[in-house]
Specification:
By secondary structure, this protein is α+β, with helices and mostly antiparallel strands. It contains eleven helices and nine strands. Strands 1, 2, 3, 4, 5, 6, 7, 8 and 9 form a nine-stranded antiparallel sheet that branches. Helix 3 (123-135) runs antiparallel to helix 4 and helix 8 packs across helix 11 (265-273). The longest helix is centred in the middle third of the chain and has 19 residues, at 143-161. The chain is elongated.
């Protein structure tokens, strides 16, 4: 016995400009037939919530699948998978595409080279799929927008649920915690690495695994976020703000802020002051 529920969508060009669009969602459980061999033209995340099975890759290898787990189906790559004979399993799938796929892949949220990814818990990803399924009701005027938002949520939930020990949550990663704590010190990446007994290359690798970016971008995001808070909520001069976030040269800070934020610090402050809270030093 098996049960299958699924919906498929064809979002329009304007929805594709949201960055990600949902092409389909499904919930299945029981003694399901094997899928494939087949090749798709878009990504699919298959979340296995219960049961065991297998996944066969184009190199001829058969990978065991034990719930909770994630199967990545990548466009243009043949795949073949199914539940263990005579047992069945519980799966939920979401198909998606869009220009934001490249960024999510670069950030480590999509792993095209890992067809089977162990998860610590399927509850978070399954909840995200359930929200997509609820949005998929027929006649929903916001169907494409809600399901697109759900795909973004699902990718984050899958990233958090990964059980890979090299991909720990930022909140629990001691290296990322220490970098965040020391972000405002005037230290180079080499100096940060030395504080942790690491080479610069080892630090870059660790930060990219945990945060999906290099140490410079990780530190810069923290510094600019704090700079925005100080500009919006205090009367500190731009030079004083620069010093508080780790830059001794206010001119360099202003150029960097302008390049990354898109507006100069003084203009950012002016735009925030109209509706912002009272400011104080």
């Amino acid at each position: 016995m098996s049960h299958t529920w699924m919906r498929y969508f064809t979002p329009g060009p304007v929805h594709h400009r949201l960055g990600l669009v949902c092409l389909g969602v499904g919930l299945q459980h029981g003694a399901l037939p094997a899928v494939g061999p087949r090749t798709l033209g878009h990504h699919v995340a298959v979340v296995i919530g219960a049961g065991t099975g297998w996944c066969r890759t184009p190199d001829g290898r058969t990978h065991p699948v034990t719930a909770p787990a994630l199967l990545w189906l990548v466009p243009g790559v043949p795949h073949h998978y199914g539940a263990a004979p005579g047992s069945g399993w519980d799966e939920a799938f979401v198909g998606f595409t869009g220009p934001a796929v490249a960024a999510y892949t670069e950030l480590g949220c999509i792993e095209p080279d890992r067809p089977v990814v162990p998860l610590t818990d399927a509850a978070g990803p399954r909840a995200a799929v359930a929200r997509i399924a609820r949005a998929a009701r027929r006649g929903n005027p916001l169907l494409e927008i809600e399901t697109a938002a759900g795909v973004h949520e699902l990718l984050v939930a899958l990233r958090r649920a990964r059980s890979d020990p090299d991909a720990t949550d930022i909140a629990a990663d001691p290296v990322l915690q220490a970098l965040a704590r020391d972000a405002f010190l005037p230290l180079s990446v080499t100096q940060h690495a030395a504080r942790h007994g690491m080479t610069p290359a080892e630090l870059r690798s660790a930060v990219r695994r945990g945060a999906g970016c290099g140490p410079k971008d990780y530190l810069l995001g923290i510094r600019l976020g704090r700079a925005k808070e100080l500009l919006a909520a205090t009367e500190l001069s731009v030079a004083a703000v620069a010093r508080r976030v780790g830059y001794d040269d206010p001119a360099y800070f202003s150029r960097l802020f302008t390049r990354r934020v898109g507006t100069a610090p003084v203009r950012f402050r002016a735009r925030q002051s109209a509706a912002g809270p009272p400011r104080s030093a």
